[in-house]
Each structure stands twice: as C-alpha cells, then as structure tokens.
Amino acid sequence: MQIMNMPEYYLFNAEFEIFQKQREQMIQALSIQKDTYFELIELGAGDGTKTKELLRALDKGDFNFDYLPIDISQNSLNKLEAALKSEMPNVTVKTKQGDYFDVLASLKDSHHPKVVLFLGSNIGNLFDHQAHDFIYQLGGSLRTNDKLLLGVDLIKPVGVVLPAYNDALGITAEFNLNILDRINKELAGDFDRNKFVHKPEYTEEEGIAKSYLMSTVEQTVEVMGKSYAFQKGEKTHTEISRKYSDEIINKILKDTDFSLLKKLVDSQCLFANYILKRGESL
Fold it and tell me: What is the pLDDT of residue 228?
C-alpha cells in the first residue's frame, strides 16, 4: 500500500481517475442491462478502492448483480466484505478465496453473464507470451459475450516511468531488497543486504520496466547449503512491469477468444482500461 501512495507512483491515481470520471462510459461499453442479472468478478480484489466507484454507480442505478471478489488472502477479502457491508449494504458480496483459475472453474457452470475485472496493470508482471496464455486460459473459463475489463499501464517516456520504480523515499528499493530478507528467513540464506542495491531500468523503446538487485562487491552467498558467487556490478533480475500500446495488446489477444470493444484512458493518457469481449471459441 505504501507504494501506491508514493507521489511518483502514477499508476493507481490514473486508473482511479478513470473509475471516478468514466464509470458511466464503462457501464455503457460493458453492455450491462438493468433487467439482466450478471456476476461482477474481480481478480485480486485487494481493498477494492477503485472498484467501489463502479459498485456505487451500479448500486445507484439499480443494476441486478452480485460482486465476487477473488483474492489469495482471506484476510483481505474479510476486510473488503466488511467495508462494503458498511458503505453499500445493498450490494451482495460473495467472496472467493483461492487461485484465480480454480475459482473461475468453479463458476463456469453458471450461465449468468459475467464481467471480469483485472486491474492495476497486474498483467504487466508477465512476459507477453505469458500474458497471452493468461488471457487465453481466462477465455476458457468464460462464455460467449462475457466481458473482461483489463487495466494496463501505457508506454511513456523514461522520465515518467522510472521514478515510479525508484522513488525518492526508497520505498521501492526497500520492497526489492526485502527479497533478500525473505530468502534469508525462508531458505536459510546469508545475504547481506548492505552489499546489494536496487537498480531499476526502463527504455521507452522496449516498454518494460525492469527491477534488479546489483551486487556492490565481489561476494559469495549461501542459500540452503549451496554457494553462489556474485561479481561486483552483477545484476539479478527480480521483476518486470510491462507497459502497453494498442499494438501490443492486439498481439497478446491474437488467437484468443477476446476482441477489443473499448479503450478508456485517464486525462494524461498514462493508463488505460481496455474492455474486451469473449467471442466464439477459435
């Protein structure tokens, strides 16, 4: 949550603006009908801050739906359900704890229309071929005319992107270095985090923000009884965050069941919510 509140981390605020200011356009593009019951399913719901904007509009408009947030954390789901019960008592919440595809498989026999939300550019943590496979597999869990609302970060200049992964307060650096602490704790490692630095990289041409941990000295580290040598300046790749364009999205959607219906962007064109429709299986 600290990362989302950083002034440099534009992603959350940009998508939140779309949900605040364009929720009616969103509802229209999703072809949601007031007299037809549907299931609103969110993958990785978290605290639901952005989704609440859509839920309020649907609640106010007397739409007939249930909200099904999916998350691996039961604690997060319990907090979200309690918050929604207080803030929007008319909204029916059916929390689903577990793996996305396991839960979706359990819902497949439902013949009700579905709208799936996958927000926050979480898909950007996958390489393009993995994102394609994810979307393809998702299509197998849905039916014809079901919708997917996909939130993605857009390709933009390095001066905008890189500070989001290298903030002045060092929050992202701490997040990355914490990997070493986890290895030490859970895998009997002996990393000295003071001998590594957080090193993010990004070019607009490639469109992928990459995080590395770079060794500042020549050193040997033990993990689970095995030794690993690091050269001074050697980088270990820890994370990617893919940025997107229409061209990249269309390549990812190729040979899947989904087609693009609508693209909503924030006022600064930093972020996009693509609305996709599942067609007949290919």
Answer: 97
